Each structure stands twice: as C-alpha cells, then as structure tokens.
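User: Before I run my own analysis I want an independent prediction to cross-check against. Here's the chain; please return only the structure tokens and, at the end, one sentence I can use as a sanity check.
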Amino acid sequence: MKLKIGAAVAVIVGQLLMAVPANAAPSTESSSDSPFESAQEALGLSSDDAAKMTTGVSATATESEAVVALGDFEVKVTAPEGNDSATTILPDGVRVMSLLDEGESSASFTVDLPKGATLTPNGGGFDVVVDAGGTRISLGQIEAPWAVDANGTKLSTSYTLAGDTLTQSVNTEGAAYPIVADPAVTVGVGADGPGVYWNMTGAQAKAISAASASAVALALAGGCAGASKVPKIGGMLSALCGFVGAPTLSSVFGDIKKILTNSKIESNACYQLRIPLGSGLHKTGKANCA
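Assistant: Structure tokens:
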C-alpha cells in the first residue's frame, strides 16, 4: 500500500500502496489547476483512479482516510484533521493527500495496524512486523520519505513516530511552495510481490529445514493449535499459522523445507520467504530478524 498526505501551499505527504512504486522523476510541468492533481503530475504520477487493482489487494477511501488490505490484513491511514484532503485509487493501493497552510513544514497521519503488529525503524522508514515464535512476519513497510518543492528541488525530510502518529518533517528553508513529500507505505510487499513474508535467522532456517514434513502435516491436521506441538519449531509454526491458516501452511511446508534444504544458509544472516511461496529464499537486512 502507499499513502500520500500533502500540503497546499502544500506538502503532499505519503502514498500507501501494496506494491513497491517505480521511481518517478520530478517534473515542474503541470496542466492542472488542482493542487492535488498538480502535485501528482509533478512527480509523473497519474491522478486518475485505477480501473482494476492488483490481485489480492483491495482498498476503500474517502477524502480523508483510506484502508488498504491484502487478504485479512488491513492498514488504515487517516489524514490530518481539519485539512483539505483527497484520494486517488491506484492499482496496488491508494494515495491520500492533505493540504497544509503555507509556512507549515510537517504533516502527521494516523496509522492503524492489525492487533499485534508494530512499526520497527528500518533505513529511514519503518517495517510493519509481528513476532512469530522467535521469528518475524513482515506484513508491510513504510519506506524512507522524500520531498521536492514546486521547482522540483529535492528537500531534506525525515519521519518521527509517536504512538500511532507518523509525522513527516521537511526542511523548507529556501524552498518554493507547494512542497511535495512522498513516503511510500508498502503492505505485504517484498522481493516476490504481495504476500506474508516470514523472516528468520539462518539458524532458525536450518531448524525448520530439519523438521519432519510428515510430522508437521500430522500436527497441522488438528489446526493451528497442533502446530505448537512440533518439536523445536512449534512456536514459529504456530505464529505463522495464525496468519496464513493451517491448510495453507500444511500445503506449502514440504516446499518450504525443500527450498531451505537446497539453499546455502549462513547461521548469523537474516532471510525472508514469502507465503504463498514465491521465487525462493531471499537474504534481507538483519533488522528484520532483530
């Protein structure tokens, strides 16, 4: 998902998407009189609602808030109260924009996450994660923000997080308004596209690969409660099962075991695997396994 909140004499702050956006080169040309449309056009982004969304992704939006979902996993983003706002539905999410008065240099939006999910700092942005029996499940990501002014000049910008309020601050010294800032919020997205991402250390991956596929299948026949009974990896399986369900986990565990067994794994590294399965095991930042 991606969310955009913005300004007017404007800061447009954020874009909430289910997929990683393509890098767009800023442009100072715009044929629109609307500050929302002009801001999007300046970034090479379409201001038209998408006719069709990516498979598995859904979104609902009003002028001031948006809910983007990947299956049962939902993230809700609300624009600053009292500001003029607008939304644009995208193929893989929704863009929420809010206008700020001239002279303001920040915008704050509320992020509502599923129960048990938290925002963890990572590279200037945040990961949406859930602890899973010692491993972590990555449900989304708020990418590091960027900002440009009306002349297309890139500005220094950063996030602060307080509770469920995420504020993007922009250094506006010498900047020409409106200012457009764009933090990308991705949910359920990683190297293999939309899905639930299971993060594990190399040592944990080796333990999972050593587990008996038949024992796991037998345990999952009783539902997710049975997953906890699998020796050594029960806690990890039980937590993952709560997100993907026993039938899905049971059907893919044999392939998970095969992927891990055939991969060169470093015990101290961090790895990521999509459920449903994608192209295989991917090395990722150690912060995802912290």
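Sanity check: Residues 196-289 form one domain.
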